[in-house]
Amino acid sequence: MKALVIGCGRVGSNIALLLDREGWDVTAVDEKEEALGRLGESWAGGFVLGHGMDIEVLRRAGIEEAEAVVVATDGDNTNIVIGQVAQQRFDNQCVVVRVLDPARAEFYRGRGLRTVCPTSVAIDVLLESVRACEVRPAESAPA
Amino acid sequence: MYILIAGGGKVGANLARTLLKDGKHEVTLIEQRRDRFERLEHEFEHQVLLGDATELYVLERAGIARPPDIVAALTGDDEDNLIICQLSREKYGVEKVIARVNDPRNQTHFDLLGIAPTVSATRGLMALIEHEVPEHDLVHLLELRKENLEIVEVQIPQGAPAAGQRVERLDLPEGSRLISIMRNGRSEIAVGSTELHPGDQVLAILQPGKEDELRRVLLKK
Predict the structure, then answer these.
(1) What is the DSSP secondary structure assignment for residue A75, as one 8-state letter?
(2) I want to staple A30 with a disulfide (CB 3.0 to 4.6 A). Which of A35, A60, A82, B10 is the partner?
(3) What is the CATH number of domain B2-122?
(4) Chain B residues lying within 8 Å of A104, measured CB to CB
């Protein structure tokens, strides 16, 4: 099974490594050569240098044969566009897109794009952690 | 008309200036960079807004919900322009959007996602150069993006294979038709019996990508 990870920063590189460990045939795409370093010396998967908006780069990375595409560059709008291209142009069924802005994440989720919003996740987890401290505001309203 | 412009660089600011001088329009300009915004604020006062036009709350502050008659996405970033147009049209029901394409290689993404019309300086310059330079034997006159067709003009040279031929005898590529022939300042609709002469200016409609085949039939010696 082939997976494409577009954007090989802190998030993308770890997804690439974990998918690789799970047995996927992974190719990472990043416009900076340094990104390859994040995958470690023993990286045996693919790496394509280039911008994910570039159709030729996507083709070289094997988007036409990929079963899964993870889009996690540092730009929300870039991710949303690449995600839609992967879905609509290359007809990929499993496209997962990182979107930091909760509003845009929700809007595009409603349009059928599988968006994941780390900001919303962080808000939930942080709130839960505060509640788990078992301290309450002094004059909390009666439940 | 109410016109919302995203991107206060040279293109956006000049468009805003020109529209306002017209005196018939209401304009809001959105600029993301603070230094640029402060300069624009001197001139445009409350008509310019600081913010990222791909953020929903910024668009809403700019009155996207009214909605504007036209949203022009003119930033220097193609992804941003695409998203601004999608949000405007699909979330807020803006009927007309115009997008600037900075890198012509991104045109295909705008087409895929149905964002039109688009304006590209590179494309415009190419069309001008094609008109000016005689080596460009085939001039693109009009792109019909939705129909996936284009209209081109060619001039039949001396000794071309098509010179002296009737239109019905030409082996035109599939997906192309001749529209009209212009000769001595007069034009006529091209029909099967129309004969092509050297010097004729021929309008043809064809699917993009068929240019070379059409050249081969009409022009090549």
Answers:
(1) -
(2) A35
(3) 3.40.50.720
(4) 54-56, 83, 87
Q: Using the 8-state DSSP alphabet, how is residue B171 labeled? A: -
Task: Inform me whether the C-beta atom of residue A77 falls under 8 Å from chain B C-beta atoms.
Answer: yes
For residues B23 and B17, the answer to whether their CB atoms sit within 8 Å is no
Query: Distance from A82 to chain B by nearest Cα, in Å?
Result: 9
Q: What is the pLDDT of residue A142?
A: 61
Contact B117, B81 (CB under 8 A): no
Query: What does DSSP assign to residue B195?
Result: B
Q: Give the span between the Cα atoms of B197 and B189, in whole angstroms.
A: 14
CA distance A32 to chain B (A): 19
| Secondary element (H or E) of residue A84 | helix A76-88
Predicted local distance difference test score (pLDDT) of residue B216: 87
* Fold topology of B137-218: Alpha-Beta Plaits (3.30.70)
- Is the model's pLDDT at B221 over the cut of 70? no
Give residue B200's identity as a one-letter amino acid code.
D
| CA-based nearest residue in chain B for residue A103 | B56
What the block records as the tokens of B213 is 């085949």
Decide if B55 and A53 are in contact by the 8 Å CB cutoff. Answer: no
Q: Which two tokens stand for residue A134?
A: 């078992």
List the strands of the sheet with A25-30, edge to edge: A46-49, A25-30, A2-6, A68-71, A94-98, A114-116
Interface test with A, best of B32, B52, B56 (most A CBs within 10 A): B56
**Euclidean distance between CA atoms B201 and B190, whole angstroms:** 11
CATH 3.40.50.720 domain locations along chain B: 2-122
Percentage above 90 pLDDT, chain B: 75
Largest CA distance in chain A: 61
Strands B176-183 and B201-206 come out as antiparallel
Q: What is the pLDDT of residues A23-77, one digit of tens each?
A: 999 999 999 999 999 999 999 999 999 999 999 999 999 999 999 999 999 999 9
Of A81, A101, A107, the CB nearest to B79: A81
Q: Which of A55, A75, A103 sits opposite B56 (nearest CB)?
A: A103
